[in-house]
Design goal:
about 350 residues, alpha/beta, TIM Barrel, 2 domains, nine-stranded parallel beta sheet, 9 strands, globular
């Protein structure tokens, strides 16, 4: 079996819709050590669904890449694993954390947390039939009355999982409560395989705090990367990279060009890329600088993304930043169209100013 070093790595979380190939490449460019595909349904791969198979494409030739699968049937899971292996995956991650109804009603994702031994049997079978490592991403439990992550983690270790990622929230909490990093620390003490911590990492100093507090092997970052893909660079350099308006435009232009390389530079390709880039702007627009000097204490009181402080007042005086940080969905679509239809920074700036 291929050996992967899970220690001291920065991992881009598997992001439904957000984990598209251009975004994964952008995060890898900024220092993500490991990237993971969007969640792929094993049964759709088994049925030969072309759109689902596209999700298996590697981020790059050089980086470490994993495919995340949602599965509940062992035979189907084994077939899907082999398809991922054939496409060049370095490891398979089983999704046991997805909270959405479509996944749960099919007895996948978070649903699997309710029956640890059945889950362990599934993982054991996947490990036995796979030539690459199997990891598992879990939540704290189904709800606050059924927090069983430690029990699940022990079962998964016995089943042969190579590593476990804990997103420290229950299925019922979704993203409404702060992530439980104390639970991450407890699991680290209870099992011998690597534990990866996930949840509420928006700055380099929060990454340091959570790593030090939990002693987890590595960190997985999801929404923090959607807001600022350069978070991996910040964590590695141990300092904030507070982008100017022009630097943000350069990054977003790079992302748009990668989108066109993937979807196509023609009208059809741009039409396909526009809604996806607009969706990304709904997260990119939430970015504002959170320097350690000004916000370290506040970050402990407000770990959730949605409870952070307001944008700097001076941004209201910058018409470009005012649009780039707008929560207006109409602006997200317009920004997507602007970045996909122009390469010139000056032309992009001029078009953005017209939105004011």
């Amino acid at each position: 079996m291929k050996n992967i070093d899970w220690k001291n790595k920065l991992i881009l979380a598997p992001l439904t819709k957000g984990g598209n190939l251009p975004f994964r490449r952008l995060c890898e460019h900024f220092g993500a050590d490991i990237t993971i595909s969007e969640m792929a349904y094993a049964y759709k791969l088994f049925q030969g669904d072309r759109k689902e198979k596209v999700l298996l494409r590697r981020t790059s030739k050089s980086g470490v890449f994993g495919v995340q699968l949602a599965a509940e049937n062992l035979g189907v899971a084994i077939e899907a694993c082999q398809m991922a292996i054939d496409e060049g995956a370095d490891f398979i991650d089983l999704n046991c954390g997805c909270p959405i109804n479509d996944t749960v009603k099919r007895k996948m994702g978070s649903h699997l947390l309710q029956k640890p031994k059945r889950l362990a049997k599934l993982v054991e079978g996947m490990v036995r039939h796979s030539s690459i490592p199997i990891t598992v991403k879990i939540r704290s439990g189904w709800d606050e009355k059924n927090i069983n992550a430690i029990e699940v983690a022990k079962e998964l270790e016995s089943a042969g999982a190579s590593a476990i990622t804990l997103h420290g929230r229950t299925r019922s909490q979704r993203y409404s409560k702060k992530a439980d990093w104390d639970l991450v620390a407890r699991i680290v003490q209870e099992i011998n395989i690597p534990v990866i911590g996930n949840g509420d990492i928006l700055t380099f100093y929060e990454a340091e705090q959570k790593k030090e507090k939990s002693l987890c092997a590595s960190l997985m970052i999801g929404r923090g990367a959607l807001i600022k893909p350069w978070i991996f660079k910040e964590i590695k350099e141990k300092k904030s990279w507070e982008l100017s308006t022009q630097e943000k435009i350069e990054v977003y232009s790079q992302f748009a060009e990668s989108m066109k390389d993937y979807f196509g530079h023609d009208d059809f390709g741009i039409k396909r890329a526009t809604p996806i880039l607009a969706w990304h702007f709904s997260f990119l627009s939430k970015y504002h600088p959170l320097s350690k000097e000004k916000f370290e204490m506040q970050s402990k009181e407000h770990p959730l993304m949605q409870t952070r402080l307001d944008y700097p007042e001076e941004w209201n005086n910058d018409p470009l930043n005012k649009i780039l940080s707008s929560p207006n969905e109409h602006h997200h679509w317009k920004l997507s169209e602007i970045f996909l239809n122009s390469k010139s920074p000056k032309k992009i700036e001029a078009c953005i100013l017209q939105l004011n």
